[in-house]
Specification:
- The complex is a heterodimer of chains A (234) and B (82).
- With 234 residues, chain A is α/β, with parallel strands linked by helices.
- Chain A has one domain: Class I glutamine amidotransferase (GATase) domain (Rossmann fold, 3-Layer(aba) Sandwich), CATH 3.40.50.880.
- Chain A contains 5 helices and 11 strands, in the order E-H-E-E-H-E-H-E-E-E-E-H-E-E-E-H.
- In chain A, strands 2-1-3-4-11-10-9-6-7 form a 9-stranded mixed beta sheet, sandwiched between helices.
- In chain A, helix 1 links the parallel strand 1 and strand 2.
- Chain A starts with a strand and ends in a 5-residue tail after the last helix.
- The model of chain A has no long low-confidence stretch (mean pLDDT 96).
- In chain B, strands 2-1-3 form a 3-stranded antiparallel beta sheet, with helices on one face.
- Chain B is built from 2 helices and 3 strands; from the N terminus they run βαβαβ.
- The radius of gyration of chain B is 16 Å and the shape is elongated.
- Chain B has a single domain, classed as Mth169, Chain: A.
- Chain B is an alpha+beta fold and 82 residues long.
- Classes of the chains: A alpha/beta (234), B alpha+beta (82).
- The interface between A and B is medium-sized, with 19 and 11 residues.
- Chain B: It comes from Tepidanaerobacter syntrophicus.
Chain lengths: 234, 82
């Protein structure tokens, strides 16, 4: 499996994502800078990492969505390559129009950084095939603009097409903190209609090895590997 | 040279937590006649255009492509001589 990790100005999750693919999964992973382009044929999966890219100026993800590299990301997306957007990477996918909707500022205007309990709603995706349906896992949420918003028609489409992949079901380590993000339908992750693009707000790469005290995120990366080793069917 | 003054603001019904946070402070200060407050953004854009019609077209494209998020924001603008 060949992975491209995009580096936007200000990305901070790029190193962690590269580390997981290379050092934990033993796969190939290369950085691609936002001023560059790449050939979609050279990679199997493209990761848009987290971290307030371009300072979150204008709106989170808005400036990154118009960088040179996004021409290649869109080309890769349209040719069926897997695209994974994590945190700010999810916001970039929304601003680029590769996923529907947008992110609003958290309802209490605070930056939230803690564990969250997340329910796996859809396991028939290349990103979640090793989880169990309705399984509750712990991931790390780290965002200020984490409140998913879309019009009623889009929400209805996401629900009817089963494209809501993860939902929040508890905040904080015990899951008993008040919901700081107020996402519509508790959305934490959505996929596009074809299923090759996933955007998620929590960070699986920050809980992908024992030393971090939580390995629930690792299965997302192992699912991607399983998808390629198992014959690539969406 | 023309100058476009562009205002963006949340669409009706979209939660504006920053506006909601400012409102009680205003009440505490005694501005009891202020009934509501909404936050938004202001952009000032200098445009090298032959006439106002050309500048309007540029502003509309600029807003629809990047400055405004059409899912949750509306915008208004005016064009003045620089």
């Amino acid at each position: 499996m060949r992975c491209a990790v995009i580096q936007f100005a200000g990305s901070s999750g790029d190193g962690d994502c590269c580390h997981v693919f290379k050092n934990i999964l033993g796969q190939s992973a290369d950085y691609v800078f936002h001023k560059e382009t790449f050939k979609p044929a050279d990679f199997d999966i493209v990761v848009l990492p987290g971290g307030a890219s371009h300072g979150d100026y204008l709106r989170p993800g808005a400036l990154s969505a118009h960088t040179k590299v996004m021409e290649s990301v869109k080309e890769a997306a349209n040719s069926g390559k897997l695209i994974l957007g994590i945190g700010n990477g999810f916001q970039i996918l929304l601003e680029a129009g590769l996923l529907p909707g947008t992110m609003l500022i958290n309802k209490d205007i605070k930056f939230y950084a803690d564990e969250v309990l997340v329910k796996v709603e859809n396991t028939a995706t290349p990103f979640t095939n090793l989880y169990k349906k309705d399984e509750v896992i712990r991931l790390i949420l780290s965002c200020k603009y984490g409140s998913y918003f879309a019009d009623a028609k889009t929400i209805e489409q996401l629900k009817s097409q089963n494209k809501i992949v993860l939902t929040y079901c508890g905040f904080g380590k015990n899951g008993d903190e008040e919901d700081p993000v107020a996402s519509m339908e508790n959305i934490a992750a959505i996929a596009n209609q074809e299923g090759n693009i996933l955007g998620l707000m929590p960070h699986p790469e920050r809980c992908a090895e024992e030393i971090l005290g939580n390995t629930d995120g690792l299965r997302m990366f192992q699912s991607i590997l399983q998808y390629f080793e198992g014959g690539k069917t969406l | 040279m023309l100058v476009a003054k562009i205002f963006t603001f949340p669409k009706a019904g979209v939660l504006d937590p920053q506006g909601s946070a400012i409102k009680p402070v205003i009440s505490n200060l005694g501005f009891t006649n202020v009934k509501d407050i909404q936050t938004g953004k202001y952009f000032e854009v200098k445009i090298d255009a032959c006439d106002v019609a050309e500048a309007r077209k540029t502003v509309q494209e600029l807003c629809s492509k990047v400055l405004v998020n059409p899912v949750v924001e509306d915008y208004e603008f005016e064009i003045l001589e620089a």
